[in-house]
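This is your field. Please look over both lines of this record.
***
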Amino acid sequence: MEFTIDKAMRERLEEARERGRDEMRPIGLIADRLGRPIPRDDPYFEGLIASGEGRTRWPGLKSKPRPSTRDPLRTVTMTLLLTEEWAYWDRGVMVANPGPGLPEGNVLALGTDEQKEQYLGPFLDPDRPRWACFAMTEPGAGSDAAAIRTHARKDGDHWILNGAKCFIGNASRADWILVQATIDPEKGRDAQRAFFVEQATPGLGGFKIEKKMGLKAYESTSFTLSDCRVPAANLLGGEARYEERAGFKTAMRTFNAGRPIIAANSVGIGRAALDEALDFARERDLLGDSRVRDRLEQMARKLRAGRLLCLRAGWLADRMAPNIVEASMSKAIAAGVAQEATSLGMELLGSVGARGDHLIEKLYRDAKAMDIVEGTGQIQRMIMARHLVQLPRN
């Protein structure tokens, strides 16, 4: 494997480092202390758009001029490096940042030209901060993505959606939501479909921003769909796409792309905890204690292993090679390492960590979500075990 970073990527990482230090961490600490997401009209978001962030990787239709974007050809490996750096400064702020978000990859891979133009086009050169999001999780369906109950019924040239979603990032401020639904709950994966639901569509509502232990800078939102009527053209990819479990594969494509990113986020959080622990140990003159040094070395060693697993999953994805095992492995291990690193940091802080005003204490709370989102650690281990013993996929 080759992970050489070229000059352009080094510059992007340096930009991310500067923005993280000067903007992301300060605003993330404010959001954490206030216990609420960054407001959508915050000048921080306007500044991101002005600097060229919040764009789509879609280049636009060939018949039209291509607005400039920061890095439309960004590889998965590059994305992992960038998201690790952003998460080092504040993972909650990173998720709050405007852009097409989690569903972009599915729209690029499966969407029609008309859907790309309609839903990704506004992100080519956005006139304001814009968001989009992917809605899979439900009150009764989290890691078991096949258990969703949001129902879709065809009605002439429209689909009618009914159901409830929860813990969806940026849902209330999104221009559109890619909603995962089923045409028959009894048929499991085979009956799943994905629909574009635009904000302010009648029947879409009940938005409630959930209170969270950590990652408070972005909104995790629950909402309902009550006889929500969307045009047939809003079915991702059109009817022809929905053969051989294409609807369920839509969700899995999102997760297989997202799990290495969550792993990279975890490494970033763990790195931040390690650096803060090192600073604390130096300030308290603790580095002469072999037990403290051993603890710090253990954190550094496991974080490096987690990063290599992330890069392996990204390297395979960039070559269009199967990476489901590597994606699950990177997520399961890196998320655990982040929790271990922040926990060891808290132990080192001692009573200082109990005050609730140290960055490591915030990182300790932030890290817990890494084991949950995009499929829990238990689910990742199930996936790896099934492949190990060559059980068929459900």
Summary: Residues 355 and 361 are 9 Å apart (CA to CA).
